[in-house]
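Onboarding guide, step 5: your first structure request.
Type a short instruction followed by the sequence, for example:

Predict the 3D structure of this protein.
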Amino acid sequence: MFDAMGLDVDTSSSKSIQEALLGMVDENGKPTKLNLVVSNMLLKSMVMAKYICAGDVEEPDYWHYGLSVPLYTHFTSPIRRYPDLIVHRQLQAILEGHSESPISGKEVARLAKASSEKKLASRKASEKSDGLFLWMFLKDQDVLYEKAVIIDIGHQWIEVLIEMLSLNFRILKYNMDVDQFDATRYESVNIVWKADKKNGLKEGVQQLKILEQVDLKLSVGKELFIMYAELVRRDLDAPVISKKKQIFKTFR
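The system replies with structure tokens like these:
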């Protein structure tokens, strides 16, 4: 993936990846657009961490990839995180000199599995809540124009990231009013827009590249959570909806 984009990123460990990301900042220490693209691609490829019972897996599987450490457990938030409470009870037993754990290995494995499932459910609920909030807001706005950065290009689509909303959209070729869509994976796409008689526009040619900023027109469908992102032609001036943008920023 990175080779195709011409990037020299050592992916042998999370530590080397983090070091590469730390180098992708501007003179003020702010992450660059390249940093956003790489971070987004890495997040999509990573599997969510799971809780395990140490006795059920081989020692190499103890490794925590995200922190790049061979042994890891967390126990700092027993009030809000049940797995921490399990660790606290076992540590207390050790400190009190007990030779056996107060919880059997079988029970720890069951609790680890249940905790992983609840953690995933919690994340999904949070994402759905954010999606519903945004859908309801966009519904009141009719349409909203926002800036986005192209983070990926496929043979039949363009993926963009709206920084302000932390939201990704994949815009399919088939949903674009184009005659031609010639893409080179991870690099660029040449688009030939159809003539737009309604707006007095002739057939237009546009080239888009990874990291390029584009304008999007956001709207919602009649059903909950259904949102649409339409790529705005460079030769078609998008209306300035400054009041709506300001309202949204305040809302956030």
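Each response can be followed by summary notes, for example: The first strand starts at residue 144 and ends at 153.
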